[in-house]
Amino acid sequence: MKKPQMLQKGNKIAVVSLSSGMMGDALFIHKYEIAKSRLENVFGLKVVPIPHALKGSEFIYENPGARAKDLMDAFQDDSIKGIFCAIGGEDSIRILPYIDYDVIRDNPKVFIGYSDSTISHLIMNKAGLISFYGVTVVVEFGEYVKMFDYTREQVEKILFADCKGYEIKPSKYWSKDFVSWDPENVDIGKELLIDEKGYEVLQGSGVVRGSLLGGCVDVFSMCVGTEIWPSPKEWKDKILLLETSEEKMPPKDLKYALRGLAAQGVLGKVRAIVVGKPQEEVYYEEYKEVYKKVLKEYCLEELPIIYNVNIGHAYPTGILPLGSDIEIDFDSKKILLVESPCEQIS
Predict the structure, then answer these.
(1) Digit-coded pLDDT (tens) for 135-193
(2) Quick one: pLDDT band at residue 346, thresholds 50, 70, 90?
């Protein structure tokens, strides 16, 4: 897998709307402005909204080709060093016919997003590029009052530094709040609660090493069987990343999704599973039972699972590099980056 160059202050980054176009809608444009200011003033980046990114929901929905062109143009623009997804959505799958994998492969750069951006991460995987699961412009960088310290630290440590050996620790706090996205609420922050659980090991033991592959479970059904869905041999010896969206799928739907992965042979090929904290901890205990039940059905009781990881739709969320090696010590409940997913600036 190719590594992008790490970011540094002064770099130009592109903001792309590859799924939902809500960032450009009148009601939500203030979230973009908050994020732009934070990216520039806190992280020292120069923010460039690629031509169609702010054209709003209707245009973005009606023009998947324009969305894909924005992505291709951002990769081909040598002045752009990173590509940040505006937000998730449900429509990234329609950009597939317009993707040029050679363009991505020949122009490696930081690509980050989550949720429906799972589609784009699988595109990066097919092109052979390490990408970063976690944080979007509207949600995390556009957070009211302040960005979560946990999230900010991971942005700084993983995207801007040599992070070989960096430990991805569980957050000491979490939030179940949702503050409605309204300009009148910009001074309202999320209430923080102490997270006493930390990482939980649902089954398995020992130390496992492998590269991450996966994303948001809700999205998988759209891409199974497409050109971006990894072949059976591509899943072998990977560490599978799974997290659920803000839709909070019922436990029975998670059960069906896991059975599907098992029936494809995916669960039998991977070395371990990393599971994200369910948003607002809805179905927290129920999901744990589903994982153990399905893996028992397929005689996979020894497959290690680490649960309650701050990734994806959790508040706060962190960053995990897809396509890069990590190490999980299931006995001490530690997650380490074995290698830096970014090349250092020469």
Answers:
(1) 999 999 999 999 999 999 999 999 999 999 999 999 999 999 999 999 999 999 999 99
(2) low
- Residue listed under structure tokens 């949600």: 139
The tens digit of pLDDT for each residue in 307-332 reads: 999 999 999 999 999 999 999 999 99
Q: Could you tell me whether strands 200-203 and 207-216 are parallel, antiparallel, or unpaired per DSSP bridges?
A: unpaired
User: Is the pTM here over 0.70, yes or no?
Assistant: yes
Strands 12-16 and 80-85: parallel
> Residue 92, Cα to own-chain centre: how many angstroms?
14
Dihedral Cα 259, 261, 267, 268, nearest 10 deg = 90
Q: What is the pLDDT of residues 102-116, one digit of tens each?
A: 999 999 999 999 999
3-state secondary structure (DSSP) of residue 80: strand
Domains of the chain (ranges, CATH numbers): 12-159 (3.40.50.10740), 173-337 (3.50.30.60)
Kindly give, in sequence order, each residue whose CB lies less than 8 Å from that of residue 67, ignoring residues fewer than 6 positions away.
16, 17, 18, 19, 52, 60, 95
Hey, what long-range contacts does 32-40 have (CB within 8 A, 24 or more apart)? 32/86, 32/137, 32/138, 32/142, 34/141, 34/142, 34/143, 34/144, 34/186, 35/137, 35/138, 35/141, 35/142, 38/141, 38/142, 38/147, 39/13, 39/84, 39/137, 39/141
Q: Which two tokens stand for residue 1?
A: 């897998």
| In contact, 76 and 6? CB cutoff 8 Å | no
Q: How confident is the model at residue 50 (pLDDT cuts 50, 70, 90)?
A: confident
Among left, alpha and beta (phi > 0; psi -120 to 50; other), residue 123 is alpha
Question: Which amino acid is residue 244, in one-letter code?
Answer: T
Distance between CA 175 and CA 155 in Å, rounded?
A: 19
